[in-house]
Amino acid sequence: xxxxxxxxxxxxxxxxxxxxxxxxxxxxxxxxxxxxxxxxxxxxxxxxxxxxxxxxxxxxxxxxxxxxxxxxxxxxxxxxxxxxxxxxxxxxxxxxxxxxxxxxxxxxxxxxxxxxxxxxxxxxxxxxxxxxxxxxxxxxxxxxxxxxxxxxx
Length: 153
Fold this sequence. Notes:
GO molecular function: acyltransferase activity, transferring groups other than amino-acyl groups
InterPro entries: Acyl_CoA_acyltransferase, GNAT_dom
Helix content: 25-40%
Strand content: 15-25%
Protein name: GNAT family N-acetyltransferase
Number of domains: 1
Domain N-acetyltransferase: 8-151
């Protein structure tokens, strides 16, 4: 069932979108299991900085005029930094349609992205597309950190 015959549109995000994008970013952080302690005003400020900078372009997805998701793209690298669809609109085809609209708008046939390990539903979503894994990211600690902790105790 693709989008239940409701119209999804894509628009470039503006600074006026930052408050709602920050709230969605908080949900995306929660979905990813990230333990970020950034407060909503910090997330809004960061989003504003990203939209005003030269690296990222933001897009909002709207359903009948209501913002239901967003994407943050490093257009020069064709890298999807954030992709989010509100929980109440998931598993109804809106995410897939938003990806289609985004890629069509960007004029690309493929785009790179990463998905946090703890974001199991996000991984399932991205695996539903034809894809090719081309890297594995690691977060490693300095080898002597554990030893230093043991010595401190």
